[in-house]
């Protein structure tokens, strides 16, 4: 119990006192676990149209400022109400990179060529290197030593000081199409993908020396490692999910029989989730699959988990909340045939933020179970009369059982019997129409 409490203090304290979601997948261990509760039902609070594709994930800074890069080559900062606070130019497009925030609200992000540092107002402090010869696809991470680590697509791991000086660089022998991860002991983990060398999960010490290297049976493509509460490293390679002990020895290996191109989410010491077109729940101790939700996921959207254990992830067209029991709690259409590459970022005010390749950035407002009132049964005639009453001061919305929006404060003449959800700012009520 003491060990578990110590883990929670180590994991959650920096998030609570610094930023709600400080880097890709929430924290330097890439667990995807938030200390905040989002809820088991949600609304689209607002959307912000960037006018270009968004494939990188967002971060949430203290004060609920949302920061993300887009493929137009700009870094954006929005308020919690969806207002543009500032945008700053980069040198190239942002492929799949998320920013990383330090405790003093400096922002580090890679575009396709460089690592940039900005202050909280969007003022550029430096960029590295001066040339544009690097090829970078994914996110930086800040180590316990305050160094900033990122991987170059063409085979190297870089460490820079907060002043923008190169501390060291190490060749990895093959390409890298994912982000590095920081362990609780300060080690840096990074996995390789296509290229001429072998596929490997590397463990580096903060001074740049190799701690160990574990051979993988496939490409770790888009598969950023995640570190569990016992320091086990979870990493995907092709259809395999590995659990590697912190000494570099294999704990277990499981095949999901489908290509895995996301980072696992770690809910606790015994439960992990993987989105690989299907959503998988696995036992972190054995690798055994507990349950599967087939055909509702995305190839690239890494799931997030809130403090109640609910799981959040998207497909190309729909965003989902799934309970720890494997049942879908709620879903909302985001109506696009384009791919979803970004992963959700969980805020501190029951909000989730995510960008889409359709050019829209979404803010979802969650509601906890205590906010959802008991259901009521009403006759169809009485309910239709209620829906047609003029009420300009109160905005309400009506959804069917699948989560499809039916109406917003407008008259409706016919309504089949069934289960509906009625929303306004005070409650989210289940209504059974007979």
What value does the Rg take, in angstroms? Answer: 22 Å
Strand sequence of the main sheet, in spatial order? 33-37-36-34-35
DSSP helix fraction: under 10%
Specify the CATH class of the largest domain.
Mainly Beta
Q: Structural class from helices and strands?
A: mainly beta
Overall shape: it is globular
For the largest beta-sheet, the strand count, sense and barrel status come to: 5 strands, mixed
| Alpha-carbon distance between the two ends | 50 Å
The overall number of domains is 2
CATH fold-level name of the largest domain: Methanol Dehydrogenase, Chain A
Counting copies of identical and different chains, the oligomeric state is: single chain
Number of strands: 37
